[in-house]
Amino acid sequence: MDTELHILDVTYETVRRLANELDRWELTKRRWGRHQADRQRRPRGAGVITHRPLERVEIDHFLLDAHVLIPHGAGFHVQRAWLTAALDHYSGIVLGHHLSFAPPSVSSVLAVLRKAILPKTAALPRANGVSEPVPVYGIPDCIVVDNGLDLASKGVRDACFALGIEIVYCPPRVPWYKGSVERFGRTINQRLVHWLPGTTLGKPLRDVEYNPKKDACILAEDFEALFEQYITDVHNHTPRRNKRGVPLERWRRGIEEFPPRLPVSMDAFDAAVALAHSAKLTQRGICFEKRYYNSIQLGMLWNRIGDKQRVQFKVNPLDLRKIMVIDPSSDEAIPVPCTTTFTYPATLDYHKAVCQYAKEHNLDPENAEHLSHAEQALRDSIEEAVTRGKQTLRRAKAQISALARREAGAQATEESDLSAEEYDDELEAVMAASKKKRTETA
Questions:
Q1: What percent of the chain has pLDDT over 90?
Q2: Which residue from 130, 188, 133, 186 is spatially nearest to 405, judged by alpha carbons?
Q3: Rounded Cα gap, residues 17 and 404, in angstroms
Q4: Within this chain, do residues 193 and 238 fall inside the same structural domain, yes or no?
């Protein structure tokens, strides 16, 4: 018996109607998985609501989309910078930040905590030429972080316990749990970094005849000064979405009603935010990260406890010029200076970056002659890059100052509810006009 197959006469409109009746969340889940379905189809509410400064501080790491020049021996090498930022959720102000050229580590987190908590005594210049104190400081009640090994390390947990800070760890792959600092990372790239020479533009450049490393011409210290100027003059005076007022004014009004907490003493604070290590004590002293530390007091301790006994010591990641050795009998902290000469900034992240660069290029970071000879060939190209970097830095500072003046004029009244998207469009127009003018001049 022959069976005939009959093809149903189905119109396009019928297929379209049936497809539109499918649940979009279920469809995305079947195609890409539950995580993508939640990200694309999950209803978004108001999020976390805070009522005062320092109630919730979000911390995260970002690999910035720009290459900068880092001094190394007799020349420079080109590398992208890591940014660790602490953002106050209530006001949106940047409490502290730390730029390093080594991957994120415990030292980066402790460094940004130190900068966020301590008062900023220096007065930073505003666009109108009048210096303004930076009233941003205080111990946060709660910090919100990822589950990275550096953020979940014992050093960070001990520091927060000593300072009375609660740590909240976000679930994996849910960046919206700390959306404020995540958005800040994208904003800093789009509004500042992507306009600098040496930028990667935040995307692969394999098919484009553009090498960001060759265009890099801004020194690391100049880049940090430019970043500070942007935070002070632009970010802290830019209105946030769905929040009345600018971050700096919201912060000032908040701390008038809820004064920030400060450490009881600097000694206790230094001990809390320092890295704890142990090493064998020898006649040469203590060796830490290929640097030796020794003093008369440490020699007396060595004579008392014996050779090659392990001792505990504390390290400030922002200053490797001395360590604090703990006397095992009295728990007294003994300051011990470094006996090895530093030829570059004495920070732990910078030191690790130098050692990593030396390892990759078969160099010895402790041998100045070796480095000088190996990097002699870089000097001509570096001098030209530095000259271009100074010109670029002046142009970038002028553009940031112009933006700051525009923001100051926009917030003269309470109507400063300029959204982030409108600000982005305005900034892009200013930068494009400036770039067009430079091209026509050239």
A1: 17
A2: 130
A3: 53
A4: yes
